[in-house]
Automatic annotation (TrEMBL):
Transmembrane segments: 33-56
Protein name: Uncharacterized protein
Organism: Parasutterella muris
Keywords: Membrane, Transmembrane, Transmembrane helix
Domain of life where this protein originates: Bacteria
């Protein structure tokens, strides 16, 4: 179970680091709608990984 939680954390951090790149696209609109969605997905993955890790550590399984 631990490798899956680390995968969620790493995937979430990757989403958070890639998201600002979508803010500076010159498509006519100043802010792309892809960046906030990607940031929310990244935050969700990090929270799932961290909460699962804390839950497993506190219950000792």
């Amino acid at each position: 179970m631990m490798p899956e939680l680390f995968f969620f954390i790493i995937l979430g951090l990757c989403c958070l680091t890639i998201a600002p790149l979508f803010l500076f696209q010159n498509d006519g609109d100043p802010v792309s709608f892809t960046a906030p969605g990607l940031m929310l997905i990244g935050i969700m993955f990090v929270l799932i990984g961290c909460c699962g890790f804390v839950g497993l550590e506190s219950y000792g399984s």
